[in-house]
Every structure is written in structure tokens, then in C-alpha cells.
């Protein structure tokens, strides 16, 4: 029998639309003003921190909706922004040194809906408000840091080959090695040139020097790596701010664009993003008395630093390894059930660390955390001057010659080992960065954009609804039902995709899909009318109308989908937002306009003896 939809297909349509409606529903509940407290530099937020925050808020009569520990962070929800701001100021004064205290908007989704993964759509900067930064990477410092690394590498490599030298030091944009005789120069040049094929070596026999200069290609690789590494680390730092859907992407050769929707606390954002941190492994100086160093008599080859608890540690200045070579770190237990941190290095790092530790078995080694904090001062070139802060986060004894994989013991507790692993895994910024442009979009402007965008969508839908009902009568009602289901499914899919963000151009994409979705039904309905005018029966006309129009609709939507994919691939920011909603709208409209409407039409008119149709 013509125009009868199988039961399984009807149930499939109902199931798909129901799932779309379920995951679209969190957008109806709105958001609550909140304050998020998260640990910085490995500091853990636990139940005791939660209790302290609750007590402080109660003592200062700040009303809360809830205060809970979620994903290692304390999240306090409030009924209004007045209490939110009071709580932020109070908690920042108390915990601002070791914790990030940030303003936030958190979804008010019911627990039962959140339990099945229901979350509202992520809103872009233009809709939710927030802050945007344009950050510049100090490429000169990146090249200088690589040059400093070469100095240490040359010393280790020459010592390993037993080639005697007088000194190794940086000289302008090159590394200069001074020898005692010409024979050693030739041996060194032959060995180092094989180990470092991306460097240019020149010999000055009269001055007994060998000079190594980085090629332009090598410097380009260093700058590219510095930019990519900084982008990765900045993404990790942005997570501390609790931003729902941040945007971190490169712009040009040395700039990074960062958009933080919903963040109004620009000072805290700048503090976290500007911090430049790294990890170094250095030997503890056990040959000299630390009491002399505490009295101000620090040996020239050593440096006095302190652990987080204030314990002084005398370290040798020579750096064994930096955190640039760490590719993975995780916490665990050793054979005696003591906490440890397992570290994996890249190949160059493993070779370097093996050579550095083979003569230091049984001696203590320190892991040093170094952070460069931005100041208000600038150098002659206008770049921000950074203040260097060093802190010992771990002291452990070298048990055996270390290589690509090794472990650090002596972390104290499993929690401390876990925090240390997180810190090491976070990586290090290759070069300092500075904010060159800052732009803030207020929440009121974002609300205005949402209001205007929503009015555009409602207006477009209303006009299409009226036209379809007047022109196609009963079949127009079916098309309108499909159009409503299409909008629900677009919102549901946008809410389900973790990386999808709704922007103002994205709302324009939704308005565009309204016309495109109803266009498919126009083609189908007009074809049904043609079949009726040619004298065919009602059932044959419906069947032929859908079948004949399908290929035309498919071709038109595929070509549009290809254009949307290209927009997404080559576009950035607003263009991508438009392409995402357009792509989703095309796919969902194909389902609702063809499969959905046919299911309804078959259920109402299919298989019946009819003389005419309301179309």
C-alpha cells in the first residue's frame, strides 16, 4: 500500500526528535551568577577548603544558593550579582595568593538532566560578554633561550667526547667555543657539526675559536615551536578560569588571540595568562655548608633557593634539564607503596639527562619551578619586563642513571605527587608573552545581541509560518511542525557538541536555515500539486511528489553543505560560528523536511481513499 510508514521508522523519527528536545531543554533554565575557586601551581582544593569557604561566606552574611566541590574546584552559586561580587572580593582577599578566584556564570541545569549529559549551548564572546586579549610572544627571548640551551649542550657533548676547551659562551647571535689548540678545534668542529646539522660552524684558528650560528631555518623553527607551545599552555591556564568555551588561536607569526566568554574579572585573567613558568632539574650542592649561604656567603657556582614550606636549599647553578623535554608525567607508587612521579622525556631530553646523572647516583636532585611575572616596567623596545620567581617543589635522591623514563620520589604524600605530576605535565612557556590589546564586551551588550538575534529568528519563523499556512493550508501546518522540530534539533545538537559555540553570526546561520528548511517542503508540495493537476490519484501524487523531489533537494543541500565545510575549514572566529550552525541546520532540515514530514503526511493521509488534498 502506498504511503504507509513502517513502525520502526515512525519510532525512529519520534526518538530522534525527543533526544533533540531533551538536550535542547537545558537552555530553558538559564545561568546562575557564581564564584569559582581553583588551585594554582599544583595547590589542591579539597573538602577542608570547601568548609572554610562556606564558613567565611556565612560569617559575612553572604547568601548563597549552593557551595559545592565540583571537578576539584569550589563553585559557589548566588541569586544575584551583588552577592556574587561581595563573595569574590572576600575570597580573593583570603585565598588570592594560592588560588584563582574568578567570577563565572554556571548553568542552572537540574541534576537529573546534567546526569545524562544535558548542558546549555556555549555562547560566544559577542553573546555572553567577556574579555578578549591579543598577546604577543617575545620571539627574541625564545631564540635567546634556545641559544642558552646550546651552550649547555656543547659543554656536555664536548666533555662526553673528552675534547678539552677553555670556555663556551653566547656571543651575539652565535655560540663561541674557545680552545687551547687547533687540533681540539678540528675535532670539536667535526663532532659538533654531525650532532647539530642545523647550525653553521666557522673556525678562527688565530683566535682558537669555533663559532656556531643558527641558520634562518633553525630560528624559524624555534619561533614556530615557541608559538605553538605557548598556545597549548595558555589553553591549560584558561581552564583555571572556568571559562565554558574559550577561544585560543594564533594570529600571524607571533600573536595569539584569546577570547574568554563570560569572564569579567580581567585582572585575574591577565595575571594567569601573563605568568611565564618553566621547570628545571638541578643538583643540590652538598659540598658546601648551607649555613654559610644563609649568612650571605653563597658560592659563585651555587644559588640559594627555598621550598614552598620555607626550607632553604642550596643548589648548583648548572641546569641538568629543563621542562621543555617532558612529554608526560603521572603519579603512582613505588615497590614500597611510597608516592612517586613517573616522568617521560623526549629523545634529546633522555640522552641529555642520562649524561647528566651518570656521575651523580646517590646524590640529591631538586626540581625547581620558575615563574616570570609581568610588571609595569618596559624595556627600551617597549616589551614588558618580567620578574623572575624561583621555588623548589621537590628534592629527591638519584637512585640510578636516568634516561628517557625515570621517577621522582620523596613527594611526601600521594596528593603532593599528583600535584607535582600535574605541574610537570602542564609544560612551560618557551618565551614570555605580553598583552598588546585588550577588549571587554559587557554582559549588557551580550544580552542585547541575544535579544536582537532572538527577535530575528522569531520574526523569520513567524513570517514563514504564516506564509506556509496560507499558501499550503493543511500541508503548511505539517511543514511548520517540521520547521519547529528543526529548530529544536539545531539547538539540541549545538548543546551536545562539546566544541560548538553559538555566536551572533551563528544566529544568522539559524535564520538562513529557516528558509532553506522550508524550501525543501516547497519543492515537495509543488511537485504533489503538479501530479494532482496531471490527473493522478491523491496517494500516487503524494508518493511521486516525495520521490521525485528527493534528488533535487539532496543535490541542493549537498552543494550548500560543501560550501559550509569550506567556510569552516578556512574561516576563523565569526565565520566558523556561521558555518557550524549552517552545517547543522542543513543536516537537521534534511531529516525533518523529508523524513519527518513524510511520516506525518503518511500518518494523516496515507493509505486512505481521498478525492482531494488540502494543499
From TrEMBL:
PANTHER family: PROTEIN TRANSLOCASE SUBUNIT SECD, PROTEIN-EXPORT MEMBRANE PROTEIN SEC. GO terms for cellular component: plasma membrane. Forms a complex with SecF. Part of the essential Sec protein translocation apparatus which comprises SecA, SecYEG and auxiliary proteins SecDF-YajC and YidC. The chain crosses the membrane at residues 452-471, 478-497, 503-525, 546-570, 582-605. Keywords: Cell membrane, Membrane, Protein transport, Translocation, Transmembrane, Transmembrane helix, Transport. Its main location: membrane. It comes from Thalassotalea algicola. This is Protein translocase subunit SecD. The gene is secD. It is found in: Cell membrane.
